[in-house]
Design goal:
By secondary structure, the chain is an alpha/beta fold. The chain has a single domain, classed as TIM Barrel (Alpha-Beta Barrel). Helix content is 40%, strand content 13%. It has 8 helices and 9 strands. The protein has helices at 13-23, 49-60, 82-91, 103-116, 136-144, 177-194, 212-228, 234-241; strands at residues 2-8, 32-35, 64-67, 126-127, 149-151, 155-158, 165-166, 170-171, 201-204. The strands form 2 sheets. The chain has a 5-stranded parallel sheet. α4 crosses α5 (136-144) and α6 runs parallel beside α7. It starts with a strand and ends in a 6-residue tail after the last helix. 39% of the residues are buried. The structure holds zinc ion. Residues 6-7, 68, 72, 130 line the site of zinc ion (ZN).
Length: 247
Amino acid sequence: MVVSLHDVSPLTQTLCEEILARLLPLGIDQTSLLIIPNHHRQAAVSENSSFRNWLVRKVEAGHEPVLHGYFHLREKKKTDSFWARLRTEVYTAGEGEFFDLSTEEASIRVQRGLQDLAFLPRKIAGFVAPAWLLGANAEIAIRNLGFLYTTRLGTVRTFGRGADIRSQSLVWSTRAPWRAVMSLAWNRCLAAYLSRAPLIRISLHPFDLQHPGVWEQVRRLAVETRRCRECVSYEKFVESLSLPQGR
Ligand SMILES: [Zn+2]
């Protein structure tokens, strides 16, 4: 199983810390932390030494740092089609930063993000686009910059290590009460469907913690899944794909 924590930034640090602390006694001591270098242009990691120190401690404790966009926000465009608006505004509340960037612009933002996170004690192997919306042009930039993998809602894509691994992630939406209720029902069914799948992905967001029903389901699923599976970061999972079977 892989547990990832999305939207890690100075804006969400307190909730992230609380989530990691609650996961630890469940036997989940390594997660993939999806870090935003400058969350909504309001929280530059490069200007926040206490956040950087906190993050270093988490990485040293075994969590994997993953680059998660740069600002996380996508600027609206006058030329947006109806379908582009539907996907980027309604589905993701305007968070699809890498949905339709050019290869050049994506490359600039990603390199800037890597620079901002260069204080970390280890190299970053993964890039996950905000809202999992990674456009084809932006994906070229990610591949060219030497990342090992990216993930989408339904797949893990390893660059140069074989075909996509299909695995629908469990993920909760708490933007509105009705979404949270739908999430609970959907994830209950999905978890049952996935119970024998080779990989189970649990994707958490900081605000999941503030919804008691959601957190209770997360906790229960994490405990049940951990009982019979190893919990690793995405990077370790991807590395394991190239090991001989049985190792
Ligand atoms: Zn995100």
